[in-house]
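Cross-posted from the bioinformatics board.
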Amino acid sequence: MEHQPSIAFVDDDDDLRNANRQTLELAGFTVVPFADALSALRVLTPDFPGVVVTDVRMPHIDGLELFRRLRAIDPDLPVILITGHGDIEMAVEALHQGAYDFIAKPYPADRLVQSITRAAEKRRLVIENRQLRQALESSDETLPLIGQTPVMQNLRKTLRHVANADVDVLIAGETGTGKDVAAGLLHEWSRRKQGNFVALNCGALPEAVIESELFGHEAGAFTGAQKRRVGRIEYASGGTLFLDEIESMPLSTQVKLLRVLETREVTPLGTNEHRPIDLRVVAAAKVDLGSPDQRANFREDLYYRLNVVTISIPPLRERREDVPLLFMHFLQRAAARFKSEAPEMTPALRSRLIDHDWPGNVRELSHFAERVALGLGDLDGARISHLADTISLPEAMERHEAKLIREALSTNNGDVRSTVEALGIPRKTFYDKLQRHGIDRADYAKVKPPGG
Ligand SMILES: Nc1ncnc2c1ncn2[C@@H]1O[C@H](COP(=O)(O)OP(=O)(O)O)[C@@H](O)[C@H]1O
Ligand SMILES: [Mg+2]
């Protein structure tokens, strides 16, 4: 899709114009020749996607005046001036005023080609930045699910459509593709938005907890069940129950969930009641539950029960055209949060965005944008560590802090006073941090000899 960069070449000298045109066309540029400034001005608009090269000495409107008028049309349009011997001082002045470059006659063809190549690259980025900003403005209405690619347009359409149909939905997609966002929209865009949106991550809860969380229990239903508890299913009645990472749901729970889905009744643990519920389940899976290999421990019957409608969100690498748009969105958001100016797109950044495969999908891209907004990401791809790719900056800082604390504890054999001294923080802060990082000081205490 890349077009050859266009060069508007302005020179009243027919021979020079033709000779330069040949040189530049051989170098791969598309040349639009003009014999005078006025005819160039008629054609050049603010969105001209190329570079202007103009001779300075011309009758009527000279090159400098052309440059000034172009600057009024678009200050970011690169203008390269070709000057005679006597004009150097004036050309330097033009540079100060924003001309891209000046080249004194006579010049080797290389000199001109190199200057134009750099100017064309700069121009391309300027135009791209502008187009992205425009696209972002018009994509406001697509929030929170940004994307101009046909798959994303279809996804939004499908979600709207399905939201109103009161059926259970399975959302399939790799991590970070937007499954949470999609689930939220299915709720927001449905009549159920008056009710609760109740999310449960099946991968994050221990098997023992998940059933009482889901189904609720009576007081005394099991050891430790002191109070009666309303389960999430019942709490989601009239609203939406979002079961994330459903592939991790324990088998025994799957059986019970299947029964709930079929009967639309819930029986809290320790009761014989059948409480009717008005339930819509949206489940999300990182694996393809339709494939027996990937389904592994997931019951086929539950899969078919949930699979009334399956919405697949493709990985970011299969909708690469959306990467720059999403990146700009996250960049602006991060810049606003950090109260800084969003940095400009650079060639290094651009190629990083395009070349990377984004295994962590949109989440990874948003973390990358945050680091760029902090001035940490605009490096050549190789220097960005792999770890930093998959976790956010605050997360990375947390981990680093935990590591330092563990090291200090281990050096000081778990002794509070010396550890606190080594870290240079107040005792209270130290204990707060231990708790936050889940570090147990006792693990670092020297093992006392038995009886000692
Ligand atoms: N199309 C999108 N437009 C804007 N933000 C998105 C988009 N897709 C995902 N995100 C954001 O990326 C992050 C990860 O999305 P999430 O829905 O949590 O992914 P998943 O649940 O599939 O792991 C979230 O911060 C979410 O807001
Ligand atoms: Mg998720």
